[in-house]
Amino acid sequence: MSQSPHKPVKLGIIGLGPRGATLTATLLQMPETARIAAICDCDGERLEKMRRHLAENGIVAETYRDSAELLASPEVDAVLVPTSWNAHLPLAIAAVRAGKPVAMEVGGATGCEELWELVRQAENNRANAMMLENCCYGRQELLVLNMVRKGLFGEILHCECGYCHHITPEMVGPDGPLTERGWHNLRRNGDLYPTHGIGPIAKILDINRGNRFVTLSSVSSKARSMELAAGGKCRFNCGDVTTTVLKCANGETVTMIHSVAPPQPYSRRGLVQGTRGIWSEDRKGIFVEGLSVSKNLTDVAGNPYVEHVWDPVESFYDKFDHPIWRDFRDHPTGGHGGMDTLALRAFCSAVAGESDYPIDVYDTAVWMSLTALSEQSVALGGMPVPVPDFTCGKWVTRGPAKPGYWSL
């Protein structure tokens, strides 16, 4: 991996549930980057199980039942928060208040006040809060980002994204919700999981750096699929399909889709349309004017016309693969096809002071706010609602992120 070397960052992990266990497994494969110095969970049995697992791998970590004690430890340089959704923000706020940089797992906010508090505490204590949005480091997303930065798509006009994933069987059983996410779908109605899609798109659109989301409008379809999975015993609030439209200060539009209930293949619905080219995840294709194939044809009346043809995404990798994936593609390690490893390495590099945070507290706040704002708009019949400017005007003069290996 072509990156500046640094001493392993001493990490404290708060929350040892399924996602905490996955991140731990990834961290164990990157000892040159990070060392697990402390672990915390309110479940003593889970805490002891993880302590034994780390010991078997030659790691002696401090153990805590109280997150405040972990945050006070001088042995912890930075904190990971892979807990349940509603615990992300309180723990992240406590971490930055204690002066510890924090990386938290994905999920939307239930309201914007906690996000403002996160921003205030991060600014006051000079401790950043990075969302571990691993999809920002997906190979296809980074390819498109690289091509956009090189001007191959021209001026960006419109983007699409989303989270379409049939996970009802994981969330709902014949008697109702089985998991935390199932309960969120039971009680709430909006785009509950926006960041996998919007994270990479926000970077492509320079959100918080010369651009921002201005308004949001959401509508939800009827809710049926989870009710059917529960045998009609529960009425779920969250519509099977939630559609959100964002308007940007610089004039671009973004459409987001959230759909986790009905059967469908997995897709993040990525699409970037510019004045010279387009990428479509679902079509697995890219078309760039002057580079892609165009067929000169004649219709039945003898009139000539041009048919544009999608080029496979893979055909652009040799020339435009992002530098990160040029280094990583032959030996990907870690969860989610290696994206977890890349996100964690990027965070640790920033904690060590060798790069800027590729996803900073302002990005984290804006992306998480979209869930709460979507709920508001759905409740108001799809009326537009304003998206807060968590930079308090700094987006106007903030330039592009400092060039660097992990920069987005």
Task: Describe the secondary-structure layout.
Blueprint: E1 9-14, H1 18-27, E2 34-40, H2 44-56, E3 62-64, H3 67-71, E4 78-81, H4 85-97, E5 102-104, H5 113-125, E6 129-131, H6 139-149, E7 156-164, H7 168-171, E8 172-173, E9 176-177, H8 180-187, H9 195-204, E10 213-220, H10 225-229, E11 242-248, E12 253-259, E13 271-274, E14 277-280, E15 285-288, E16 294-298, E17 304-308, E18 311-312, H11 317-320, H12 323-328, H13 339-351, H14 361-379, E19 385-386
Helix pairs in contact: 4-5, 5-14
What are the salient characteristics of this protein?
nine-stranded mixed sheet, alpha/beta, 33% helix, Dihydrodipicolinate Reductase, domain 2, 19 strands, six-stranded parallel sheet, 21% strand, 408 residues
